[in-house]
Amino acid sequence: MSGTLLIVDDEPHIRTLLEQSLEELEDAGVRLLSAVDGAEALATIRSERPDVVFLDVMMPRLNGFDVCAAVKSDPRLSGVTVVLLTAKGQEVDRQRGDEVGADLYLTKPFDPDDLLATAERLLGVH
Amino acid sequence: MVVTGEPSGVLPLRRLLPQRELGELLGAFAPLFPGATLRVLDPAGVILAEQRQERLSGAPLNGGSWEGPLRLGAATVGSLQVQAGALPAGGEPLSTSSSTAAAAALTATLEHALAGAALRRQLAAETLERYREVHLAYRLGEVLSAGLDPLRLPQRVLDEALRVVRSAAALVVLDEADGPRVAAAVGVAPDDVSVLEALRAARLAAAPGRSAIQVAEPAAGEFALRLWAPLRAGDRTFGGVLLLRPAGSEIFGAGDAKLLAALGAQAGTYVDNARLHQAAVEQARLARELQLAHEVQAQLMPSDLPRVDGWDVAAWWSAAHEVGGDFYDVTRQGARLDVTVADVADKGMAAALFMALSRSVVRASAGEGRGPGEVLTRANALLCADASDGMFVTVAHAQLFPGGAVRYANGGHAPPLVARSDGSLETLARTGILLGWDAAANYGEAGLRLAPGDTLLLYTDGVTEARSAAGEAYGEARLERLVRALVQDGAPAGELIATIRADVATFVGGREPFDDLTLLAARCTVACNGGHGGRSSG
Predict the structure, then answer these.
(1) With helix as H, strand as E and coil as C, how does B201-259 read?
(2) Which listed CATH number (3.20.20.100, 3.40.50.280, 1.10.300.10, 3.40.50.2300) goes with A4-123?
(3) Mean pLDDT for the stretch of residues B113-123
(4) B124/A16 Cβ within 8 A
(5) Which of A4, A54, A51, A59 is nearest to A29 (CA)?
(6) Of A88, A112, A114, the CB nearest to B128
(7) Does residue B534 carry a pLDDT above 60?
(8) Is B163 an 8 Å CB contact of chain A?
């Protein structure tokens, strides 16, 4: 097992795209999980302790910043790397992301190859 | 686009339907199989989802199990297994028609979900390709607009191409006036013959302006798998990107070709703009150099002509746009006046610099005790020692003595004219070859005597070779006719030159002169004892 990665996006199509871009990680033994909103994401993070979370920013119930802030303020979750998926050109998102302790950013529309390479790098999978 | 051998693979079931979805489907059907366990297995027999239904009511299924394939199109992607628990007394066997009908319904539902998932995946895959293209466009815009250096741009294009389509080797080719040139290469030497052959073959396989996937025989060289996409600006193709993989590796796919074509179309505009920009910069540089060359040349022309008694001298020079390297010079050596007209056989800054050198060398070689032949012999030796290869200059050099005596030497120059006031006309033949060619060359000289009113005219071939709108050359005959008439009319040197200028200008009709034009006239004004000097050779 080479770690666990959680995909969080409320938009089912984007979630499918993210999953499909990353599914070859499963061949390397990575466990791929997904969550459909911020609340489910936080619950999954707490129960499954993923190594990496690809976290959409704009979501109902609990948005990406809120989830990130909750994760980063919880010492038990210090091993979780949070990658925020921000919209292209939304520099303000990055400022906010920095405030809540996001580790990395990927802009949407994301480059599937970039996404996979980032996940591989963060999980130490080659 | 030529596509060959697209490999088809059947996706594993676990990729099509995640465990959660499978579990939900089995859970929905489980009540139809009381006491049984439902499983979905992959072709290797690995359990992907499992659902056990406790017997709540009704008769339990009896022992034994049922298993049927799960199909997606023609392919079997897994199986559904119904395993009954132990059969209590009076239990219903699994093989009853109601339970087989339920199993068939579950199978149909699972297969329907699989087909739906496969369609979603296909749509998602297409969307991901769009994502790649969109992202490629974003990246290219950022990366390529970061610098318009035409030397670095092809490497950037190559880096981006390799990012989107992994390959063993790659090159960017630009079509130049003298043929295609490899502007950047990764993984291969740009001059590798087999690679150039692969390039030629891949381009041949492509329709004009389109991308192409080519699978060559493995014997065709190290890189049998090729993907070509043109670099384009509008409808113009001016090169392309070639990606290479060795035989036996994964064949380039249609999606790869599409991406590379998108890259070629977008990067093409940048590369083209960079090339245009470079051409504009080069043009500006040439214009500056030309301006400088003009200044060098103009500064070397004498601003005031020295005067001696007995001679009326006038000169005129006009530079061609490209700077032809003409010069004239008039220096005083005691009571003698030395006149020179020369023409460097080149254009531009190089000609201007060589002209400056030639003028200095002729000046330095002249001296009171030296005849014109010796002056040219010395000047030639100095120029040959100094000059870079391929720079030559024709020189007509004359020494004007008080009273009308003239000694002259002609190093490959247009023969000067001597027009007499009686209407006769002579030309002063060459006494040696052009200067700068042969360091050992010797230059002869000759002499003649002018009577008052007789005029010596030195000129460069820019005058006689000036062209009319119809392409006709001004010519020696026209010049000689005009000079003869003017001298016969007693025209002073200045008037002679002004009239020739005006006549040449009328002849060319306002067109930009191709070459420099230089005229120098020396009219004898005071006679010496003995009248006309006869021609003598020396």
Answers:
(1) HHHHHCCCCCCEEEECCHHHCCCCEEEEEEEEECCEEEEEEEEEECCCCCCCCHHHHHH
(2) 3.40.50.2300
(3) 87
(4) yes
(5) A4
(6) A112
(7) no
(8) yes
